[in-house]
């Protein structure tokens, strides 16, 4: 089976089931972090940006804990100016120290080195931008109060280290009014008399990454092997349109179930189809494997 053989009726049926599943699961994409870390992320304007920049290749929990760890390491001198003054090399050393016992086991040495080099460079460049463009206060990015999802997306995309995936994930969190970054901004701006709101849920898109392509392709029977990254663009229109079919008023919502399945069931080798909530959508991959 594939999109061609499922035909419109088969695809529409799957979209309806996705919607139903998502209501049943009442999914929450918030990750578990220490209370002190969460408090710090809510209080500080810079911490969620650094957490977002770090959030690639390593676990989300570790990425979002780094700002709090750095704050303690710097004896509370955690600001765009003080971090910028430390420079890339020093931040790289500190990040390396933090990551010492937290690297994903399968991450190669070369990738670890690149991670440290790139992330520390992005952190310093972002601090420079916040100092020079936003008057040393990252919340000034959002001081107009009301935004649409695409506006948020491009405000975030202009930050070093925030690519399409991260920008659409955070824009989606803002639309849903959840996540540590959103909660903190809302509280801080409210104290300044600004009501922060992100409107037009229907303009959100699905953040496409390897999990999303893999799960979508397996459910639809589009491929036997997950394609390489340079082929992802081929699936982009199918995924975005399927999301609009399933969730017309909030297409980005589909990411909740894809996120859960990607994290807990749909491993590259030996996916746990038996327990996966998408098995009975039905998933063409699971059907083919007789699961
Ligand atoms: S049923 Fe299996 S292949 Fe299909 S989405 Fe779930 S884990 Fe992946």
UniProtKB/TrEMBL annotation:
Single GO BP term: DNA repair
Residue runs in coiled coils: none
InterPro entries the record matches: DNA_glycosylase (IPR011257), HhH_base_excis_C (IPR023170)
GO molecular function, one term: catalytic activity
Designated name of the protein: HhH-GPD domain-containing protein
Organism: candidate division WOR-3 bacterium
